Amino acid sequence: MQRRLFLPALGGALVAVPLARAAFAQELQTVRIGLSEGDDATPTIYAIKVGLFKKYGIDAQIVPMGSGAAGLAALAGGSIDVAGTSLLPFLSARSKGLPLTIVAPLASYSPDSVYATILVKKEATYKTGRDLN
Q1: Among 44, 49, 74, 108, which is most exposed with the fewest C-beta within 10 angstroms?
Q2: What one-character-per-residue DSSP string does 12-40 give?
Q3: Residue 106 and residue 11: Cα distance in Å, rounded?
Q4: Residue 64 DSSP label
Q5: Cα separation of 104 and 11, whole Å?
Q6: Mean pLDDT (whole number) for 22-36
Q7: For residue 111, pLDDT beyond 80
Q8: C-alpha–C-alpha distance, residues 97 and 1, integer Å
């Protein structure tokens, strides 16, 4: 199996090609997914709990990771098959020659459904994410 990468903050849907191949297998294909704690892991945990992976022939197993960068290291070392990370560590790993592929977002941002915020002191010179540009 080729190792793949789940990536947050990009729009899109799960790529069906790897799933379709596993759907007709006689037994479940194990896929080890490296995720760190946080809201980004919720959709994957939910999909496991309600049996969506098993429906398509996949025994999805979450492997706890301390960070996305740790997930990429585990992916490169072969101890997991899929890693949850953010764009910067992904691009850094790609620039060093690791053959990574984006499979799906862990989460996507929409101004209509804000799930993360930035907290600052009243006297801070920045008030919004745009102020950090």
Answers
A1: 49
A2: ----HHHHHHHHT-SSPEEEEEEE-SSGG
A3: 9
A4: E
A5: 8
A6: 79
A7: no
A8: 19
What average pLDDT score do residues 6-32 get?
A: 51
Contact call for residues 103 and 112 (beta carbons, < 8 A): no
CA distance 87 to 113: 21
Q: Which residues are CB-contacts of 52 (< 8 A; sequence separation ≥ 6)?
A: none
pLDDT tier at 28, thresholds 50, 70, 90: very high
Q: Which pLDDT score, from 0 to 100, does residue 115 have? A: 66
Distance separating the N- and C-terminal Cα atoms of the chain: 40
| Rounded distance between C-alpha atoms, residue 42 and residue 50, angstroms | 12
Query: From CA 127, how far away is CA 17, in angstroms rounded?
Result: 43
Q: Residue 88: is its pLDDT beyond 80?
A: yes
The one-letter amino acid at 116: A
For residue 1, give every residue at least 6 positions away whose Cβ sits within 8 Å of its Cβ, in sequence order, or none.
Answer: 18, 29, 31, 81
Collapse the DSSP code of 104 into the 3-class scheme (helix H, G, I; strand E, B; otherwise coil) and give the result.
Answer: strand
